[in-house]
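Lecture 7, part 2: worked example. A protein chain together with iron/sulfur cluster.
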Amino acid sequence: MSLKKVVKVGSRFLGGNYPILVQTMANIKTSRVEDILKMEKDLSSLGNDLLRLSVLDEADAQAFKELTARSKTPLIADIHFNYLWAIEALNNGAAAVRLNPGNISDPGQMNQVIDAAFKNGAAIRIGVNSGSLPAHYAAKKDEAKAYADVMASYLKAFDDRGFSNLVLSLKSSDPEVTYEAYRLADQLFPYPLHLGVTEAGEGAIGAIRSCIGLVPLLKEGIGSTIRISLTDEPREEVKACRALLKGMGLADHVPVLVSCPTCGRTQVDLMRVSAIVSKHLEGIHKDIKVAVMGCPVNGPGEAKDADIGLAGGVNSFLVFEKGQPVKTLKEDEAIAFLLSEIDRLAKEMD
Ligand code: SF4
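Predicted complex, written out as structure tokens:
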């Protein structure tokens, strides 16, 4: 791992010793300003650091003016082909643009985008993906090298113009190729890396595929920002990113919910309870560990390092703290008590 150049993206910084930032991408049209701002606020409350927005037309590029004036999260314009929209988004306050230089082949046009980023103090994320590669490869290592080679060829135009406020991504849908490509990029380029496995798939499967590529990179200290691309709502991507960083000891102020898989001993609606507690924890930004377990036989013992938890009985729950029983309550009372205790613990940590 090599220490990366510090790059400013709006109010946030990437690279150097800055923490790894979480990012996602809105899944609605950018010109729907009020809906985007609502989404931005929700994602920010979950711990999202950077938000990317697609620019599909002139209206989207123009929308950046109002969006950047009202958003607390730095906004990144995602643009393919039309360099004028990139310039317009930058002039309207976009903290960065994400481009695939292969889609803006005219050097004069690319130079105008670079100049607009310079003028506005913005960053550019250069994204290489499988569509950028010139040929097929016999081995995954060869394919990973092709990603790095293409990136090196793209970087020349930026070097020539003295522009270095760059973030790089080399995403494959194959986790192993992604891993190899980022390792190479880390050795070759001084810029912060945006990690991600592209088109990873739905929900848990997509998160697993992402983790196969991202965990070894993060363990090696590679990566300045991550996105877990899921066929799901952006808030699920943010939650997955936060859980990954927390699980690897790379993020603080993230609660953990330990919940059992249920089995024949379960005599409560554990999935309902777990969903309610999980939702409540979305608004808690403290290092609290909560357990929701299906039975009193194994539950408290299995979750003894949880700050507080519930263990199901027969239509009731035993409340336990640090593995020790406190009291037994009916299901809804137990939920209400647990949520209020979570809030109390969070307040104590202020
Ligand atoms: Fe089964 Fe109890 Fe373990 Fe849950 S905690 S899986 S109910 S034994």
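The chain has a mean pLDDT of 94. The radius of gyration is 23 Å. Keep this in mind for problem set question 3.
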